[in-house]
Amino acid sequence: MNTFGHKFRFTTFGESHGKALGCVIDGVPAGIKIDEEFIQNEMNRRKPGQNKYATARKESDSVEILSGVFEGLTTGTPISMVIFNENQKSKDYSNVKDLFRPGHADYTYFNKYGIRDYRGGGRSSARETAARVAAGAIAKLLLKELDIEVQSGICEIDGIKAKNHDFSNVQDSEIYALDKNMEQEQKDAILKAKNSHNSVGGVALINIKNCPIGLGEPLYFKLDSQFANAMMSINAVKAIEIGDGFDAVNKKGYENNDEIRAKGFKSNHSGGILGGISNGEDIDLKVYFKPTPSIFIKQETIDIYNNEVEYELKGRHDPCVAVRGSVVAESMAALVLADMLLLNMSSKIENIKKVYDK
Ligand code: FMN
């Protein structure tokens, strides 16, 4: 199961220490202008090795488009993109060859398949998310045609919460912080964990503007369920909130309902989704990332022969995966929207008549 989406559908391939990763996207309408600089820029926002708050692994994450684009426009045929791996250090993993690293997929993969690529986690590595960002960039170019905007930023690191959500701060921040006043404290928490060979968790906020009313397919394909599916498919994501999320549980109905006026909703506690369908308000999602499992502190585990052992990791790892993970979550949100937009087009006979000029 390496495919996501229905009408706008993509499949990713590749492993952390293999030759390359990539994706094939099917269902992209013809005639979308492909801005390669934009796609690469999206890749650069996720790529590793950019500052001391991220892993030191250096990858250019240059994307090559192999098919589906002619003279700068999509042709309606599958778009395939490839990203070659450049900076693997597979020998860093020789000491964990027969061990199951705590917090990683090693134990479950091995028990499920009986074989695993231990170098960097193979397919279970978040290196795969580079391919999702490439696919997400194509989805964003489709959304751009419809003036739909998806943005993200970090609203919490190690329990230190942003008090203000200012997306204009994100692009100048090394940790994509939404609150300039909390940024230093959040950065210090990452460095403190890194210097003590540990890691921290964090929360990304995704905001979607200009989403039309009607996206989401009741009952088993609600928009919220598709966002949850998309976000929970990202490595290290442990929870997602929509709108007021967990806080809604402790409110009374009167406080939580968004009253409706002729000009629209008076509030947006629902986070832009009602009954599984977008209501035209901003969509707000919070995506919760656990602390990076790879830490450089001695831990207990077992080997593939069930011997109890102690081990210490080598390698290069993100002290807080939420930072680069926020870009992946933003891409997945764009991919869900692209799919839902295309699915929604056949919900009314008028729409179909419009296409066929009847
Ligand atoms: N885990 C690590 O141990 N080291 C890393 O450098 C690392 N980088 C990541 C980068 C991104 C962008 C994301 C989203 C996750 C990263 N992870 C990293 C998380 C692991 O891949 C993930 O926790 C692990 O595969 C187990 O899966 P699970 O946490 O979803 O259960």
Could you describe the 3D structure shown?
- The structure is a single chain.
- This protein has helices spanning 36-46, 106-113, 129-145, 180-195, 223-232, 253-256, 321-344, 349-355, and strands at residues 3-4, 9-14, 20-26, 63-67, 69-70, 73-74, 79-84, 149-157, 160-161, 202-209, 237-242, 260-261, 264-265, 273-274, 277-278, 283-289, 299-302, 308-311.
- It is an alpha+beta fold and 358 residues long.
- The protein has a single domain, classed as Chorismate synthase, AroC fold, CATH 3.60.150.10.
- A five-stranded antiparallel sheet has the order 1-2-3-7-4, with helices on one face. A five-stranded antiparallel sheet has the order 9-8-10-16-11. A two-stranded antiparallel ribbon has the order 5-6.
- Flavin mononucleotide (FMN) binds next to helix 7.
Q: How much helix is in the residues?
A: 25-40%
Number of strands: 18
CATH homology-level superfamily: Chorismate synthase AroC
- The figure for the number of domains is 1
Shape: globular
| Separation of the first and last Cα atoms | 40 Å
CATH topology: Chorismate synthase, AroC fold
Bound molecules: flavin mononucleotide
Mean pLDDT score = 95
Biggest sheet details:
5 strands, antiparallel
Structural class given helices, strands, pairing?
A: alpha+beta
Strand content: 15-25%
**Would you identify the CATH architecture?**
4-Layer Sandwich
- Per DSSP, the total helix count is 8
CATH class: Alpha Beta
How would you spell out the order of helices and strands?
EEEHEEEEHHEEHEHEHEEEEEEEHH
